[in-house]
Structures are given as C-alpha cells and as structure tokens.
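Retro notes, structure queue

What went well: the backlog is down to a handful. What didn't: a couple of records were mislabeled last round, so from now on we paste the full input next to the output in the thread. Example, using YxlC family protein from Priestia megaterium:
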Amino acid sequence: MREENDNQSLHSLKKDWEQLESLASHERISLHAIQEQLLIQKQKQKKAFRKELCLFTLTALVILTVMATAILQIPALFIAIEVIGIIVAPISFIVFHYKRKKEMFL
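Corresponding output:
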C-alpha cells in the first residue's frame, strides 16, 4: 500500500516537473530579429515624435494668431485675459499642490 502511494507521488512529481519544464522552455531570439524589432520601434517613435511636433506647432500657431488678433483688435480683452491668467494660475497651482500632498498621505 505504501509502495503504491509512493509510486503515485513519484509519478505526480514527474508529471509536475515536466509541466514546469514545458513552461520554462523558450525559444532563443536571434540577434538579427532583435535588431529588426529595435529598428521598427525606433521608426514608430520617430513617426510619433513628428506627429506630436506637428500638432504642437499647429497649436502654438493658432494660439499666437488668436493672441495677436486680440492684442491688435481688442486690447482691453487681451489685458483682461492676462490679468485673469495671472490670478488664476497661482491659485490653481496651490490647490492642486495641496490636493496631491493630501493624497500622498492618505
């Protein structure tokens, strides 16, 4: 009875060991494949950077155009926007800073 129990445990251990080996086995990737993947990733990053740069430039041009128009056409509106920005920016910074500190301690 005990010998039969030992055989079952041994068989179970062998089966588990084979499963572990099959999970751990992996194919080696060649150096050429790694270099090719790196090249593809670099190309994707360059494409994403160009797209982001174009969007940034376009946004900056729109903002500059709006601001130049506001300065030339309605100087009072421009001054009001600047004053509101000067007042609101530090207040919002302080509020967000304290919220972040409060979240860190919770």
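Agreed that this is the format going forward. Reviewer comment attached to the example: The chain has one domain: 2-104.
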